[in-house]
Each structure stands twice: as C-alpha cells, then as structure tokens.
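Reopening this ticket.

The earlier resolution said the output was attached, but the attachment link was broken on my side. Pasting everything inline this time so it's all in one place.
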Amino acid sequence: MTTTMIDFDAVKTRQRQTWASGDYSAVAARIVPIAERLVEAADLTAGSVVLDVATGSGNAALAAARTGAVVTGVDYVTSLLNRGRVRATAEGLPVEFKEGDAENLPFEDASFDAVLSVVGVMFTPDQEGAAAELLRVCRSGGTIALANWTPSSFVGDMFRTVAAYVPPPAGVKPPGLWGTEERLRELLGDGVSSLHTALRTFVFRFRSAEEFAEFFRTNYGPVGKAIEALDELDQQRLWDDLVTLGRTQNRAQGDAVAIPSDYLEVIAVRR
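Inline output:
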C-alpha cells in the first residue's frame, strides 16, 4: 500500500490565498445566525475566557462577546481579522483578534474556558492536528462548541460540484467529515468526557439561482478561485452547474430561491 505524503504547509499556503480572495466576510454576514445559535447552545458564562478558532470576520467571537465573555478570535487571513476588528469597534465589543494557525494555536495549554469554531476549523488540512489543538487549549471541564457543514449538505454538494472541475489536494480528508458524529468522536476521542450533536439547518436566500452563483463566485474564495483556474468553456460549465444546483436545491416558489444546508451543532466537554 502506498501512503500519500501531504505537505500540509503547502496546502495551507494555498488555502490562505484562497480564503483571502473574494470577500468571505460577505458570506459570513449571511450566516450570522449559525454562530448566534451555537453560542446559545454553548451556554457561556459572563467573564469566561473564550477562543473562536478560524474566526474569519468574527461571527462567533462577536456572539460570544455579547454574553460578557472575554473573547479572542484567531485566524490566518489578515484581511478577515481586520474586518472583525471593524465590526467589534462598531458594536462596542472588546474582542481581541489575533493572527494564528488553527493547527498550531499561539496559546498556552488550558488557556480557555470554551473553544468555538463555526464552519472554520473543519477546513484545516490536518484534521487530527487541528482537533488536538482544540483540546490542548481548552481547560478540563471546559466546552468545545462547533458548527460544521455535513457531507450531504448543500454546501457539501457545492464543493463536490467544484471538485468535478478542480480536484482538492490529494490525500487531504474532506472537510465535511467534521460534520459527522463518527469522525468527531475519532478526532476528539478520550479528550472529551461527553459529546452531543444536533442536526441544524441554515437557509441561504437569494433572488434567483443566478444571483446565488454570482454571489459565491464573487465572494467565496474556493468557488471563485476554482472558476479562475478553468478555461473559458469549463468556466461556463461550472457556472451552469452551480445555477442548476441552486435551482434543484431550492424549496421556494417563484424566482427567488431558499436553499437549505444542514450543519452539525456540536457541544463537547473537555475531560
């Protein structure tokens, strides 16, 4: 059996460039309710020390700060951290945003009462390494709270649509595995004393399937970069496939689309 050696640093360099392209903060602005719901489920205590991993523009960090927690958001995309700082200032919330790698968090062991991530840490190429870091920085008895798109979700379908044209790096496990309880139990293992999951649904809403495709092409780095990498013919084919996906997943009537996407809400207690 041949084992594929993965250059995680090279993968992360490409990922960082991908997430920095477009404007992920525009996508994050659409999915704020996921972070708000996760923070409510985590039942944070005012004054608790909280870390939001792969914070992006700060959805979960800001939601946690509204509970009175002392919050740090960490991400490796500077432009998104800057957007989070603008949002925190505008809302008068004292969140610290810090540049850092989810697979090598710049914090001491057991530094936080709660560690959060909303559709963020799931995209790390070294899943085992990232999970180990979540556990390492969370104190015993603390909370690890995650929201991860499921493999069969609309977002999962979108990634499969893109992958038919631009395959993901060889050997890297699919991000959607973080959206399964089985994989989470493998990743967190004996590091947690309890793990509870709940299947939730977020609905993307656009005026048309074409608006959905254009929004993700413009703002969502993984889609935009994939389209850029193709020749003109395949660019049109991928665009058409995305529009078709939006239409087939639509549950609304008329021209507007309402596209449900399942995600797994996870609440675990650090052993």
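Reporter confirms the inline version is readable. Strands lie at 49-53, 70-75, 95-99, 112-118, 138-149, 192-206, 257-270. DSSP finds eleven helices and seven strands in the chain.
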